[in-house]
Amino acid sequence: MIELRAKVKSWGNSLGIILPKSTGIQENQDVIVHIAPARETTKVKDIFGEGRLRKPVAELMKEIDAELD
Questions:
Q1: Angstrom distance (rounded) from CA 6 to CA 37
Q2: Backbone phi, then psi, for 4, in 5-degree steps?
Q3: On the CB side of 28, how many CA atoms lie within 13 Å of its CA?
Q4: Do the beta carbons of residue 9 and residue 18 sit within 8 Å?
Q5: Cβ-contact 55, 64 below 8 angstroms
Q6: Where are the beta strands (DSSP E) in 1-69?
Q7: 1 has a pLDDT exceeding 80
Q8: Burial class of 55 by CB neighbour count within 10 A (0 to 12, 13 to 18, 19+)
Q9: pLDDT given at position 35
Q10: Closest by alpha carbon to 8, among 19, 17, 40?
Q11: Which residues 6+ apart lie within 8 Å of 4 measured at CB?
Q12: Which pLDDT belongs to residue 58?
């Protein structure tokens, strides 16, 4: 199995992906394609959810700094 990152491009009224020759896939060869959109970055809110703080972030940072001293 080969895994590679490719950019989808417009191809007439469709979308297409160009495969490099280094994959060894030949023209007219049948292949099975699994498609998964790439996520460029992972956001903290995606991992932990979105929450509301009771205190401003600057105040929390001052408290953390005071505890570390």
A1: 10
A2: -145, 160
A3: 0
A4: yes
A5: no
A6: 9-11, 14-16
A7: no
A8: exposed
A9: 84
A10: 17
A11: 19, 20, 23
A12: 85
Half-sphere exposure of 9 (CA within 13 A, CB side): 6
Please tell me whether residue 31 adopts helix, strand or coil conformation.
coil
Return the structure tokens found at 57. Answer: 């972030």
The encoded tokens of residue 54 equal: 């009771």
Delimit the domains of the chain by residue range. 9-68
d(Cα 66, Cα 69) in Å, to the nearest integer? 5
Q: What is the pLDDT of residue 13?
A: 94
Tokens representing 9?
């491009």
Quickly count: other Cβ atoms within 10 Å of residue 19's Cβ: 14
Task: Give the angle 48-53-56 at the CA atoms, nearest 5°.
Answer: 125
Output the pLDDT for position 63.
87
| Span 18-60, pLDDT tens digits | 888 888 889 999 999 888 887 777 677 766 766 777 888 888 8
Beta bridge partners of 15: 10
